[in-house]
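Translate structure to sequence.
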């Protein structure tokens, strides 16, 4: 064994590799992105690794591999699980041949945006086992265990991380000589009773099989001692800690010990197999302890199931948790929650201001709305939308601009204040149609990025064309899945894709769908882009504008830029209009003049387009 420093995402990916995984699929989404990305960097021989078009496709590819007898891993963030679930529940009913592990990363505290979803509910709803590691080291070992469990019971298995342990670094004892799994020949098994849903008898039988597999999982988890029960003093406090919260217990105990807490007096049930619920261990804890403290992030899922066991056992002690009002169902847990829980359950009289320094530091942080990077082509598109709306004779609050997931949603923030809303991947186009059908008489614009368009935008555009909904769709194509770290998508240049991949072209796809008007513009050409949008707002039918310019980050990594901008000092009166209009991070103020920071400037020229005093010279690269 060798001690290696890595993130939770990397540990999970390495665990899958050392478990003999053959196929790895996923869609980028913080905080899960790093797992599949690390395998792409490794380029493991004999393992197929891909960024799929969306999570549903990724899961279906992985399921096909597992049905052929190979081990497969599918990765996604919590929002992606919603996308994949239509197929997931059917796959769960059928079961698998080879091991299938579904890695989902939740985001308590919302570090990366989207709904604060608790994916443990999907395991409950699907009757699928879920393993919830606490530490980075757990992510490695328990992922390997998850593949074994999956094949032992013939069922997909969830492994769930959260932002705190997916993104943190930790020491992992890595197997220097992991088991060498024999090469498996793919199997072709024709079994319509297992792999189809053709009739109620088949579905009911599969449902019974699914429940039986979950019961086998319960026995397997108990035999493997995945959940750990340590009994302390009789009639003392019992603690149930789920997943990552277990990583905070010891530090919380040390702090509470300063105020009279005795760690030896408590019993702890550390739950890493969160579904099925370890009822046998929970009953043992209830029988040993006079009160229970439940520590779990987000929904009180384990706490509810504990209440069921407490009712069955006629337990009369107090249960402290979310349902008792001790904790709220919002945000991530820290050591503070452990200490506060101990204080409330044991009346330790720990000072209430013990952790006020944390909130005081947060209060001092400057409010900085998230904005696009210097050189981002979306800046030009948002500026052009605002200009086109004004030139068309409308006020900004008269024209609905629906937004979508990814960098494009940053148009909601200053200085653009262009985008009004967002829902989920691809929703901007159907949302816009809803506004039109509701009777909105002013123009309606939908905005969507290229990766999001491939992920879930095509169906919405087809719907608009079929029903002839008058709207303007602006596809903001920067060639990458940028917000999650520059992953490739179907439209990324072939030179950046894996060997053998083929690039798709939105400029060929969209006209083939039968839209009424189609234009392709360069968002760095501000005047032409604004004029095209203004023209589109006047025309009937479904109009699509493809605003295409590569993301500045990968271009700069190749040593490229778009041009060079320079301040003409004698013309600059420090009005800061360029900053107010563009919000570009490469612009600042010093010595009474605007300054262009050369190490940040990509040379897009949009500041020169915004300046009304010819105070910025711009030269476009050929």
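Result:
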């Amino acid at each position: 064994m060798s001690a290696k420093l890595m993130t939770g995402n990397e540990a999970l990916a390495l665990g899958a590799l050392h478990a003999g995984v053959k196929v790895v699929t996923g869609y980028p989404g913080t905080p899960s992105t790093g797992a599949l990305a690390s395998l792409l960097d490794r380029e493991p021989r004999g393992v197929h690794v891909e960024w799929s078009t969306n999570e549903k496709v990724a899961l279906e590819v992985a399921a096909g591999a597992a049905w052929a007898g190979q081990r497969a891993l599918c990765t996604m963030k919590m929002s992606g699980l919603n996308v994949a679930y239509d197929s997931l529940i059917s796959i769960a009913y059928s079961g698998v041949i080879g091991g299938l592990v579904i890695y989902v990363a939740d985001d308590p505290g919302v570090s990366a945006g989207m709904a604060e979803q608790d994916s443990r509910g999907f395991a409950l709803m699907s009757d699928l086992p879920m393993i919830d590691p606490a530490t980075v080291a757990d992510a490695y070992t328990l992922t390997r265990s998850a593949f074994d469990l999956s094949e032992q019971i013939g069922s997909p298995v969830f492994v769930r991380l959260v932002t705190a342990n997916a993104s943190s670094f930790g020491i992992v004892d890595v197997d220097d000589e992991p088991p060498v799994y024999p090469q498996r020949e793919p199997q072709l098994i024709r079994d319509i009773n297992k792999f189809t849903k053709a009739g109620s008898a088949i579905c009911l039988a599969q449902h019974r099989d699914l429940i039986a597999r979950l019961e086998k999982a319960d026995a397997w988890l108990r035999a493997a001692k995945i959940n750990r029960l340590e009994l302390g003093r009789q009639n003392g406090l019992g603690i149930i800690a789920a997943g990552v919260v277990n990583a905070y217990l010891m530090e919380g105990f040390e702090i509470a010990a300063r105020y009279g807490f005795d760690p030896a007096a408590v019993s702890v049930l550390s739950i890493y197999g969160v579904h099925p619920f370890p009822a046998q261990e929970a009953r043992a804890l209830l029988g040993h302890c006079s009160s229970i403290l439940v520590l779990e992030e987000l929904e009180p899922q384990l706490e509810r199931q504990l209440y069921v066991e407490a009712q069955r056992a006629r337990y009369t002690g107090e249960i402290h948790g979310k349902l008792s009002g001790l904790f709220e169902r919002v945000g991530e847990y820290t050591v503070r929650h452990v200490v506060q829980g101990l204080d409330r359950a044991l009346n330790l009289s720990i000072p209430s201001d013990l952790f006020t320094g944390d909130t005081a530091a947060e209060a001092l942080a400057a409010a900085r709305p998230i904005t696009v990077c210097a050189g981002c082509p979306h800046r030009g598109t948002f500026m052009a939308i605002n200009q086109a709306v004004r030139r068309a004779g409308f006020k900004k609050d008269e024209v609905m601009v629906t937004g979508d997931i990814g960098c494009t949603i940053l148009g909601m923030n200053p200085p653009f204040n262009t985008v009004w809303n967002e829902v989920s991947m691809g929703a901007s186009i159907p949302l816009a149609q809803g506004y039109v059908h509701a009777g909105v008489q002013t123009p309606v614009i939908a905005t969507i990025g290229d990766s999001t368009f491939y992920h879930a935008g095509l169906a919405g555009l087809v719907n608009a064309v079929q029903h002839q909904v008058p709207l303007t769709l602006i596809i903001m194509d920067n060639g990458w899945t940028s917000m999650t770290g520059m992953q490739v998508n179907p439209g990324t240049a072939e030179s950046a894709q894996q060997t053998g991949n083929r690039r798709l072209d939105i400029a060929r796809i969209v006209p083939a769908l039968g839209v009424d008007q189609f234009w392709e513009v360069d968002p760095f050409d501000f005047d032409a882009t604004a004029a095209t949008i203004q023209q589109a707002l006047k025309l009937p039918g479904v109009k699509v504008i493809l605003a295409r310019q590569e993301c500045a980050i990968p271009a700069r990594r190749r040593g490229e830029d778009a041009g060079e901008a320079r301040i003409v000092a004698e013309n600059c009166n420090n009005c800061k209009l360029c900053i107010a209009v563009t919000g570009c991070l490469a612009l600042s103020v010093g010595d009474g003049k605007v300054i262009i920071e050369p190490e940040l400037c990509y040379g897009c020229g949009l500041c020169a387009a915004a300046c009304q005093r010819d105070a910025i010279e711009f030269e476009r690269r050929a």
